[in-house]
Amino acid sequence: MTPVWHQLEAHASSPVKRHFLHGLALLDRSSYYAILVAMGMMTLLVSAQVFTRYALSSSIDSADELSRLFFVWAIFLAIPHGIKVGIHVGIDALVSYLPKRLQQRLAQLMAWIGAAMMAGLFWVSLGAVASKWQELMPTLPITAAVFYIAVLVCAGHSCLHLVAQALRLEPLPSAPPHRGGLPS
After folding, report:
1. Could you read off the pLDDT of 108-147 as tens digits, one per residue?
2. Helix, strand, coil percentages in the chain from 3-state DSSP, rounded to 5
3. Distance CA 43, CA 96 (A)
4. Do residues 155 and 121 lie in contact, with contact meaning Cβ atoms separated by under 8 Å?
5. Which of 24, 166, 171, 175 places its Cα 20 to 30 Å from the Cα of 30?
């Protein structure tokens, strides 16, 4: 079995690109685990809420708000992983008839445009986080900005993946290696 760091070995032509890919792989791995935690917490909260409501005739005041928060975070953390591997809606009816070289150049251009849009969303999200920071959630003493921070993180992470695509850098694996159990 090869060490984890060797599995994340970058094959970029320059040290800057290699470090960029390693940093992106580390961000991907961290995001991957954060998605697992968010989904697990959401599931536990909803299950506990159902149990307390029907078995104990009571309710957890913050369960709805917290489960919604975990759902939002899970979704926004997962979006960059979809962008990384090209799992997004696209209509290529016209593009598929173009020569391969032109298709590749068009894909690069679209990646740069997408990266610019994500950078813009990142900037706008910073303003939204700043404006919502003083506002608290109704049932918890937590800032309501945590919902907007998820958008901020998603925009920054997505922008990095789109830049990597525009530079035609191969993404490194972000999922942990498979260790026994059922085959994937």
Report:
1. 899 999 999 999 999 999 999 999 999 988 888 889 899 9
2. 70, 0, 30
3. 41
4. yes
5. 166
